[in-house]
């Protein structure tokens, strides 16, 4: 497979002894959507800024499209689109004028630029808002304009930094569908998000970072295999006596038991179909329950297991 991004032994040190990125290596291949996940302060933004040559790094090597990336690598940068989390458009320009301006930074031919701008408008669903100014747009429409400005010149590599923050479900669906379409048309995409379900739905491969290192990499299913959790059983039961919680903790394969409100959650480290044993336990102890169901580990479970549950700044 053709490598679009190749990062080897990247280290970024802000202060002596303080490393935002520590000997990090990763690869991104042509035509894939790669999710770059990590808690706050994990090194995601620093890594991306180093790849884009917006930050000078301490050591390592970065290649994009097979060439070494430098601040003046304008031939490479012309093939890259960046959609930052903070909306960056001109308030005094209309939707169409904003798109024409940003596309014009790369495409000088007016006829070609017009064609690309119209394609970007259609991709994000802004056909009815071309004459609107940014202040007249809702939050979701503004996000879609921000995306269109970053991809109007048809880049081959696109970085999306949490593009669906604070948007409604309809706008989120539109954005995710648009990103998939860009991939289907040949773009390679690096996608950062704190929404695990988005990464699971959208990304071909996921890289989890923390403390400037790659903790794990693979498809969603491959990452779930890393979780030290085999099964979770949830029981909706009212007024469960504490003595039963202790008994459940002693059952075969049980790792952790929690009871919050009326929800009993049992986590198993091994074994499958543990739900049948739990149903038998409830029956034998004459415990009435409203609902019981089993589920496999989620990407969120893997993420928390790898990066920890403590709060981050």
Explain this structure to me?
- This protein is 34% helix and 28% strand.
- It has 313 residues and is of the alpha/beta class.
- It folds into 2 domains: 3-224, 3-Layer(aba) Sandwich (Rossmann fold), CATH 3.40.50.300; 231-296, Alpha-Beta Plaits (2-Layer Sandwich).
- The strands form 3 sheets. A 6-stranded mixed sheet has the order 6-7-8-3-9-10. Strands 2-1-4-5 form a 4-stranded antiparallel sheet, with helices on one face.
- A hairpin with a 2-residue loop joins strand 1 (3-15) and strand 2.
- Helix 3 runs parallel beside helix 5 (139-151).
- The protein is globular and about 80 Å long.
- It starts with a strand and ends in a 6-residue tail after the last helix.
Break the fold down into its secondary structure elements and pairings:
Layout: E1 3-15, E2 18-29, E3 33-37, H1 44-51, E4 59-64, E5 67-68, H2 74-77, E6 80-83, H3 95-104, H4 110-124, H5 139-151, E7 157-161, H6 169-184, E8 188-192, H7 196-202, E9 205-210, E10 213-218, H8 220-224, E11 231-236, H9 242-249, E12 254-260, E13 263-268, H10 274-284, E14 291-295, H11 299-307
Helix pairs in contact: 3-4, 3-5, 4-5
The second-level CATH architecture of the largest domain is: 3-Layer(aba) Sandwich
Task: Specify the CATH homologous superfamily of the largest domain.
Answer: P-loop containing nucleotide triphosphate hydrolases
The helix/strand series, from N terminus to C terminus, equals EEEHEEHEHHHEHEHEEHEHEEHEH
The whole-number mean of residue pLDDT values reads: 94
CATH secondary-structure class of the largest domain: Alpha Beta
* Count of helical regions: 11
Terminus-to-terminus distance: 38 Å
Task: Using the CA coordinates, give the radius of gyration.
Answer: 24 Å
Helix share, percent? 25-40%
Largest sheet: 6 strands, mixed
Derived structural class: alpha/beta
Could you give the order of strands across the largest sheet?
6-7-8-3-9-10
Low-confidence runs: none
Q: So what's the overall shape?
A: globular
Report the strand count.
14
Count the domains.
Answer: 2
CATH topology of the largest domain: Rossmann fold
């Amino acid at each position: 497979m053709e490598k679009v991004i190749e990062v080897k032994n990247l280290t970024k040190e802000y202060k002596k002894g303080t490393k935002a990125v520590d000997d990090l290596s990763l690869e991104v291949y042509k035509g894939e959507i790669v999710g770059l996940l990590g808690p706050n302060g994990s090194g995601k933004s620093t890594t991306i800024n180093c790849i884009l040559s917006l930050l000078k790094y301490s050591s390592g090597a970065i290649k994009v499209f097979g060439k070494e990336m430098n601040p003046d690598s304008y031939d490479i940068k012309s093939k890259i689109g960046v959609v930052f989390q903070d909306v960056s458009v001109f308030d005094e320009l209309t939707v169409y004028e904003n798109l024409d301006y940003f596309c014009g930074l790369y495409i000088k031919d007016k006829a070609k630029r017009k064609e690309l701008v119209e394609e970007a408008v259609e991709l994000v669903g802004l056909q009815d808002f071309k004459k609107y100014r940014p202040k007249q747009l809702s939050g979701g429409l503004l996000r879609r304009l921000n995306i269109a400005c970053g991809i109007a010149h048809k880049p081959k590599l696109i970085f999306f930094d949490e593009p669906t923050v604070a948007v409604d479900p309809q706008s989120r669906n539109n954005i995710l569908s648009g990103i998939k379409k860009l991939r289907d048309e040949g773009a390679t995409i690096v996608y950062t998000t704190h929404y695990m379900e988005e990464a699971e739905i959208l990304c071909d491969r996921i890289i989890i970072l923390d403390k400037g290192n790659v903790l794990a990499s693979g498809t969603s299913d491959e990452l779930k295999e890393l979780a030290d959790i085999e099964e979770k059983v949830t029981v909706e039961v009212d007024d469960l006596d504490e003595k039963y919680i202790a008994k459940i903790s002693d059952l075969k394969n049980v790792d952790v038991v929690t009871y919050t409100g009326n929800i009993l959650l049992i986590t198993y480290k091994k074994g499958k179909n543990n739900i049948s044993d739990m149903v038998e336990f409830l029956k034998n102890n004459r415990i009435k329950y409203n609902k019981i169901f089993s589920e496999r580990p989620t990407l969120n479970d893997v993420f928390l297991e790898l990066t920890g549950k403590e709060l981050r700044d």
